[in-house]
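hiii so um. not sure if this is the right channel but i have a protein structure encoded as C-alpha cells and i wanna go backwards to a sequence. like what aa goes where. can anyone help
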C-alpha cells in the first residue's frame, strides 16, 4: 500500500488515502478545528471511505492509524460523529481503540 496526500490547506484540513497498484482503495477527509464541546483542538474526522471490494482487509483501519499518527502532534483528540443506529460505523471506530463520548 502507498500513502497518498491529495491536498492540504494551510494545515487546516487534509485529504489522504491509500493506493494499491496505483488504484486508490480508500480515503480520509479530516479538518483541524476547535471543539467547543471538548474545549480542545481536535481532528474532526469527516469521512472514511473504502472501495466496496476492498472492505474488510484493513484499509480503513490503516487510514485511521495514519490519522492518529498525524494528528497527535497537533491535536488533543479525534472527533468522530456516527449516526444513531449505524452499528457498523460505531464498531469500525471502536476497533482502533477510539472511545465514544455521549
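sure thing!! here u go:
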Amino acid at each position: 500500500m502507498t500513502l497518498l496526500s491529495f491536498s492540504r490547506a494551510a494545515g487546516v484540513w487534509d485529504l489522504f488515502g491509500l493506493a494499491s497498484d496505483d488504484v486508490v482503495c480508500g480515503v480520509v477527509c479530516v479538518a483541524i478545528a476547535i471543539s467547543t464541546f471538548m474545549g480542545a483542538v481536535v481532528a474532526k474526522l469527516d469521512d472514511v471511505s473504502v472501495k466496496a471490494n476492498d472492505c474488510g482487509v484493513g484499509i480503513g483501519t490503516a487510514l485511521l492509524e495514519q490519522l492518529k499518527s498525524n494528528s497527535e502532534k497537533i491535536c488533543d483528540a479525534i472527533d468522530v460523529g456516527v449516526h444513531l443506529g449505524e452499528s457498523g460505523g460505531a464498531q469500525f471506530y471502536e476497533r482502533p481503540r477510539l472511545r465514544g463520548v455521549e
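oh and The chain has a mean pLDDT of 77.
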